[in-house]
Design goal:
mainly alpha; Fumarase C, Chain B, domain 1; Fumarase C, Chain A, domain 2; 2 domains; three-stranded antiparallel beta sheet; two-stranded parallel ribbon; 20 helices; 9 strands
Length: 523
């Protein structure tokens, strides 16, 4: 895990970049003194109410459908422990380390607002676990995205008390108590309200949204790079990407995508060939427009960008939130509320899954055009070396098509579903966790579809160059990058390792970096 500069929690909103830095890159976490003071102040409010004979939800009562039972002081430590044990009820495969770290960080960030009523030691223990690389085991299933991501957060909180399994900084599975001791940390013994404060939040779905926004920034620029390579290698035109034409429909994402495409194919002999004139003054090229998957790339990629911008706005609002139930208000009240409902986050997670599926669908259509001799403008069938003996990239397109089919299924919204729970107390839930989980699978699928297009386009550019039409500087830089990892045209080879190699180049951002090195920064 690579570390970077510390992320300081002040009670102010975190940024998406800070979430990624801690979750993925292992940046250390610090809690500002002012935040610790705010935490202590709200804890004093809870302590005062703990002795009140009047019941207060989450402090001296049961939870959910059991909220009407008053719990005597002698049983409240048992109440907190029982809450975590019973709610740590996840099942299925373990979720990724970066997702768990995002969960830990975002719950800690809410504590730092001073609105949850936890003790300072609870917050500092969470920070210390993050810095020590102690990652509780959290399972795929267990959250309905309402009353917070209850089960995932309960697994984390339970580990902080010394129970349940974790992975240490080296990824080794260990009992929580053992890992805490090795890090010099004492297990938490929770006081009134703390168990509830540690599990009431949209932190899982929000953390996955932040990671997705970061990854989509690279993937949508990669989609522009892949499209530029395809437009050029299929002898398409950049005329439809002209700034004045794009400005007639003033969507900002469309303008960004078109600008990228123009820069990537600038200086291309293919583009120049469409503007040549014969000796008699007639155009040498009679093509007037390209297929939609080429000509409309700015419109589709741009719409996806605008969707990301909307999702980022929602994420930033959620990062500014202090989500708990009950919550300690600024003026010292402890009030029940519904801010834990995940609908705002769930909606944009589903929206992004739609955009991911559509960008991938267009990419696959461009790949397919390379392989069809009737539409590839003179390229050999399936880009094969000896068609008939060789199948070329025929089955790579099958793989892309299968991925797109899966992405279309994953685009079906989770947030329109709801299964009542907790004896009908929680009778409408967001399913935001599920929306986030399927978006993560969708991002992996988009990465693979774009990689297959880049691989096909690189081979086609090689064939065009052999015929006397070299690529533009931007597309040539990517073709060279691919050739550093995958051999050029020739007889059939084992294709799966080559696909995985290009998948790695897309996922790491190397494809975008290579293009940007040649033409300047891409948006």
């Amino acid at each position: 895990m690579t570390t970077s500069s510390a992320v300081v929690l002040t009670g102010a909103p975190l940024t998406v970049a800070e979430v990624v830095a801690v979750a993925r890159d292992g940046a250390p976490v610090r809690i500002a003194a002012s935040a610790l003071e705010a935490i202590a102040a709200s804890r004093a409010v809870v302590d005062a109410l703990a002795g009140d004979p009047v019941p207060h939800y989450g402090i001296s009562t049961g939870f959910g459908a059991l909220a009407r039972r008053h719990i005597p002081p002698t049983r409240r430590a048992d109440l907190q422990r029982s809450l975590l044990r019973s709610h740590a009820a996840g099942s299925g495969p373990e979720v990724e380390r970066e997702v768990v770290r995002a969960l830990q960080l975002l719950r800690l960030a809410t504590m730092a607002t001073g609105r949850t009523g936890v003790r300072p030691v609870t917050a500092t223990t969470y920070a210390a676990m993050l810095d020590a690389g102690i990652t509780p085991v959290v399972h795929e299933y267990g959250s309905l995205g309402c009353s917070g991501d209850l089960a995932p957060l309960a697994h984390i909180a339970l580990a902080a008390t010394g129970e349940g399994p974790v992975h240490d900084a080296d990824g080794v599975a260990r009992p929580a108590a053992e890992a805490l001791a090795a890090a010099g940390l004492a297990p938490l013994v929770l006081a009134e309200k703390e168990g509830l404060a540690l599990i009431n939040g949209t932190d899982g779905m929000l953390g996955m949204l932040c990671l997705a926004l970061h990854d989509l920034g690279t993937l949508l620029t990669t989609a522009d790079v892949a499209a530029a390579m395809s437009v050029e290698a299929l002898l398409g035109s950049d005329a439809a990407f002209a700034a004045d034409l794009v400005a007639l429909r003033p969507h900002p994402g469309q303008a960004t995508a078109a600008t990228n495409l123009r820069r990537l194919v600038a200086g291309s002999p293919v583009m120049a060939s469409h503007r040549t004139v014969a000796e008699d003054g007639t155009p040498a090229c009679t093509r007037v427009q390209d297929a939609y998957s080429l000509r409309c790339a700015p419109q589709v990629h741009g719409a996806a960008r605008d969707t990301v911008d909307h999702a980022r706005t929602v994420a930033e609002r959620e990062l500014a939130a202090a989500i708990d139930n009950p919550v300690v208000t600024v003026d010292g009240r402890v009030e029940s509320n519904g801010n834990f409902h995940g609908a705002p986050v769930a909606y944009v997670l589903d929206f992004l899954a739609i955009a991911v599926a559509d960008v991938a669908s267009m990419s696959e259509r461009r790949t397919d055009r390379f392989l069809d001799a009737a539409r590839s403008e003179g390229l050999p069938p399936f880009l094969a070396d000896d068609p008939g003996v060789d199948s070329g990239l025929m089955i790579a397109q099958y793989t892309a098509a299968g991925l797109v089919t899966e992405l279309k299924r994953l685009a079906a919204p989770a947030s329109v579903d709801s299964i009542p729970s907790s004896a009908m107390q929680e009778d409408h839930v967001s399913m935001g966790w599920h929306a986030a989980r399927k978006l993560r699978r969708g991002l992996d699928g988009l990465t693979r579809v774009l990689a297959i297009e880049v691989m096909a386009a690189a081979r086609a550019l090689d064939l065009r160059a052999a015929g006397g039409l070299p690529p533009a500087a931007g597309t040539e830089a990517v073709r060279r990058l691919v050739r550093e990892h995958v051999a050029g045209p020739g007889p059939d080879r084992h294709l799966a390792p080559e696909i995985e190699a290009v998948v790695g180049l897309v996922r790491s951002g190397a494809v975008v970096a290579a293009a940007a090195d040649a033409v300047g920064p891409l948006a």
